[in-house]
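tool_log.txt
---
The assistant was asked to compare two proteins side by side. It first ran the structure predictor on the initial sequence, then on the second. Raw inputs and outputs are pasted verbatim so the downstream comparison step can read them without reformatting.
(1)
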Amino acid sequence: MAPDHSSTLDALISQVQTAPDEGTASEISNQLWEYWADAPDETAQEILNRGMRKRAAWDLLGAREDFDALISYCPDYAEGYNQRAFVNFLRQDYEVALPDLERAIELSPRHIGALSGRALSLVGLGREAEAQDALAAALELNPWLPERSLYKPPEPIPQTGDDI
């Protein structure tokens, strides 16, 4: 089981929501990632770190193998699913990324990275309406996300007839 950082994460999410500028929001977002990437134990942390190093070096197959191992070892740790989804996203295998993102969000409903990753995967699949809904949910938690430029607010419903 991953360490419970929920109160700290809630405080950081509140801070990013009211951040005065993009630079401040970016610093807060980095702090959020530190907590999401805090694995349940030393073995899980090593597997996560190894997979992230491989991903950073574009060894995507090696990274995916590590994240598969992490998920097998810690099936209730959201970041394992999120990282495997990210590898599949980088491989442009959006359909494979989605179930992992759904599981990460199920385990950690306020995981902004998984929420925005879900939106971007839906964009990649051409599922624009769903992507906009997913992006709106992520932007509610962090209005400074780099993906905010992709958000298109819903069109207002035109009024017809006379008001009663």
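(2)
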Amino acid sequence: MSDDFMLDTDDLKRRMDGAISSLKTEFASLRTGRGSASMLEPVMVEAYGQRTPINQVGTVNVPEPRMVTINVWDKSMVNAVEKAIRESGLGINPQLNGTIIMLPIPELNEERRRDLSKVAGQYAEHARVSIRNVRRDGMDQIKKGKADGLSEDDQKLWESEVQDMTNSYIKQIDDALENKQAEIMQV
């Protein structure tokens, strides 16, 4: 490979890893009929004049598969946390017990499972698009290198490396989607 042209593959990998990480976060927010603390990560509470993640106003626990509890540290924040959960669109009805908010996770019906599966597919497609955009940036850098004197053989080697990296990340996305859809459809 040419000494003067050096593609920053570490940057491309970092950006592709970011797309995978973002996908995993989005998948964690999808309710699958089982409780998990990560399903509350996107919920923001109006606390002390600013929007705060729910895990910074209380302890989130999963004492059993169909129950999530939040032990709110400041008693004055209980109603704000309850309101944030109701307005979050999770479809969960919080129950108060002092400073503890209990979230019973209802069974998912077949239609809701299919809807969630489609949403997971959309999340995966967004991640694939992100990976392809990183790939395009890498290919653009290689084309600029060719204009600056990169040989055709080196260009082909770099393009092949970027494409192999892209295929690897797309496969990770497809595998993660398959696992998430199986988890969602499990009764």
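---
observation on (2): The chain has a mean pLDDT of 88. Residues 9-27+109-185 form a domain with the Topoisomerase I; Chain A, domain 4 fold (CATH 1.10.132.20).
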